[in-house]
Amino acid sequence: MLKEFQEFISRGNVMDLAVAVIIGAAFSKIVDSLVNDIIMPIIGAIFGGLDFNNYFLPLSSAVNATSLAEAKKQGAVFAYGSFITVALNFIILAFIIFLMVKAVNNLRKRLEREKPAAPAAAPPPADVALLTEIRDLLARK
Q1: Stretches in the chain below the pLDDT threshold 50
Q2: How far apart are the first and last CA of the chain?
Q3: DSSP-derived secondary structure letter, 52
Q4: How far is residue 9's CA from residue 94's CA, in Å, rounded to a whole number?
């Protein structure tokens, strides 16, 4: 069982997947920063100058805080601003991945078009052609 596990881990696809997950996690942090530090403050300014992550509806009468973190300490809240931020993160990440996949597919198509055509197979030598003809004649009888 240990040997099978070693073979599984040493396959190229598993290592490629591990690298992709690590790069994806790092890329996700970049997108999070883009959304939280650049896009959401602009949207927050449009919607009244507040931090969009702090948009919430209190679900308890005990909640009277103005920030989400403090409101969560006081009771239950409906944090729709955080959800919208996460949804926007997903949409941006999905769009960027779409663009990357599209670019890779276009590159593959271009490389396939530029690939030189396979040379035509050389005709077999005369003795091989003669033997093939004899074999075919004997097969018909």
Answers
A1: none
A2: 56
A3: G
A4: 28
